[in-house]
Amino acid sequence: MKWNAVPLVGAVGLAPLVAAVPRGVVIARQQSGTPSSGMSSSMGMSASMSAPPTRSHPSSVAHTPFSGTPYTTGAVTASSVGTGIPMGSVSPEATTYPSNGNLNNPEPAPYVPAGGLGTNGTIPVYNAKSDFDYESLALALYQEWIELDLFQDGLRRFSAEDFQAAGLSKADRDLIAFMAEQEVGHATLISNMLGAEAPQQCNYNYPYTNVAEYLDFCQKLTRWGESGVYGFLAHLDSREAASLLTLSITTEARQQMIFRQFQGLFPMPVWFEVGVPQSWAWTLLAPYISSCPEGQTRLAWQNFPGLQVLNQPSSATANNGTAQMNNTLGPAANVVRGNKTNNQPATGPNGGARVTHDIGALSYPGRQVYLEWQQPGQEIGPNNSYVTSTSAGAGQYVVWVSQLNVTYSSLTVTEQGTSNGTGRGYTIQPDLETFQGDPAINGTIFIAITDSDAVYTPFNLSQINPHVVAGPAIYQAG
Ligand SMILES: *[C@@H]1O[C@H](CO)[C@@H](O)[C@H](O)[C@H]1NC(C)=O
Ligand SMILES: *[C@@H]1O[C@H](CO)[C@@H](O)[C@H](O)[C@H]1NC(C)=O
Ligand SMILES: *[C@@H]1O[C@H](CO)[C@@H](O)[C@H](O)[C@H]1NC(C)=O
Ligand SMILES: *[C@@H]1O[C@H](CO)[C@@H](O)[C@H](O)[C@H]1NC(C)=O
Ligand SMILES: *[C@@H]1O[C@H](CO)[C@@H](O)[C@H](O)[C@H]1NC(C)=O
Ligand SMILES: *[C@@H]1O[C@H](CO)[C@@H](O)[C@H](O)[C@H]1NC(C)=O
Ligand SMILES: *[C@@H]1O[C@H](CO)[C@@H](O)[C@H](O)[C@H]1NC(C)=O
Ligand SMILES: *[C@@H]1O[C@H](CO)[C@@H](O)[C@H](O)[C@H]1NC(C)=O
Ligand SMILES: *[C@@H]1O[C@H](CO)[C@@H](O)[C@H](O)[C@H]1NC(C)=O
């Protein structure tokens, strides 16, 4: 492997954060032997002896699909599983605080207003405090591991000339290499919070065949990495884990935006970033994991049937909206095919990397979006050992999850189930604003097929899961 030497900012930058975690309080993962094995030599990172070590991981992993026999099937389940979450009501205490601008309770100390969680002097313990915490953090770790491999894989597969043809410089490649180092830190941080059984790095398979597709995949994968964490962050029992995860997910958010800039898209066309449930992130991630090592810790989240956007917007549809049919490389990420001969998107303005680009609208309200979805029961994910499922009835709506909004359009089914079991239909892109002057449907967003059009807001969106027929898919609204 050839890596450009990048200064050790990665290792040093992480040190104060982890060092701030009291020794012996966090369940720290035992490191065997040398710190960051595989990294120091392969990535030009040098390690300081005083900083905590990074978690070791294979320096090279296979990139082939899994072809063996699944060793187990389905998500992890507890010894007892209930029938569903009932719909509740507003808790009485939710509305008792007067919100009148005054201090309504005695202050526990000078300059300290009453209230808050974890503010009474209790020593913080940065660990998982429930199954919900563990499974959420473990999912985030699966995501950090794939990002680490993905950022390295593109640099390995495509030459500096290939990147240049797609409008990216050597410094842009160095930035991607640095992003891989950030992932080493993120994976270490989450592993330390999870303890000895923290999931390990796996083997992956990627859909891209040129730089344009690689950037599109990275831009879309980091979107669900970021949004998947926003979906659960505020629900964690462990305020301490939430605190550290916030400080890493904000770095991921920057990565997502940089990949948009690498594609020549407008860097942030929304006022709010979207959050989605864990099972949505897992549905999007699992298809790209071929196999995981023996003894791998498994996840409890659901894999929904795949959903493919047949006419996915991209830079090629800017100020036009007409996308070629069948222009995606498959469900989940719904990467748009690039031009195999010149590393650019198949058609459209040659943006190249830019800080910002007034590229115009890639999609518009009223746009007809063609969809194809799979039936449940497909083996997917690590060692094909998970199975797609749905508990919903017939698909009637497409849910659009963007910014603060969860909204629906009706689904017209054109084929209930083709010979190979896929359904087909279309919907119309809805027209709504989050606030006046902020069209809600823009940027890299999520759509799914549902059997109901019930109301959800960002904090209770995971309640939609029993109604998901297929998806989510990534939709490139702008
Ligand atoms: C501080 O808060 C925690 C939970 O929020 C509680 O368990 C603990 O008893 C409190 N400590 C004191 C000294 O009040
Ligand atoms: C998954 O498959 C790989 C490759 O065949 C194998 O090495 C590994 O042990 C399997 N993983 C598990 C958890 O069994
Ligand atoms: C819009 O894109 C389609 C397909 O790429 C192309 O055939 C058409 O000419 C474009 N229209 C405009 C107005 O650019
Ligand atoms: C898209 O693919 C479907 C099924 O493979 C095919 O029936 C259809 O003609 C294709 N459409 C275009 C425009 O290529
Ligand atoms: C791909 O790029 C080549 C060389 O620049 C060009 O001739 C061809 O038209 C492009 N194909 C598409 C589908 O844009
Ligand atoms: C998305 O935002 C960009 C940048 O503000 C704007 O040019 C574009 O028209 C918007 N797209 C839609 C569908 O509103
Ligand atoms: C299912 O068959 C259709 C043609 O009827 C084809 O376009 C599509 O790619 C197939 N999907 C899968 C998942 O094999
Ligand atoms: C979009 O979100 C805003 C902010 O939460 C909300 O006020 C508005 O009603 C939502 N719009 C729709 C159509 O759901
Ligand atoms: C989700 O929360 C909103 C209020 O923010 C409420 O109107 C809606 O009924 C809730 N949905 C469910 C299924 O509980």
From TrEMBL:
Residues 1-20 form the signal peptide. Residues 32-54 have a biased composition (Low complexity). InterPro entries: Rds1 (IPR039254). Keywords: Signal. Transmembrane segments: none annotated. Residues 56-66 have a biased composition (Polar residues). It comes from the Eukaryota. Residues 31-66 are annotated as: Disordered. It holds the Pfam family Ferritin_2. This is Protein rds1. It comes from Penicillium ucsense.
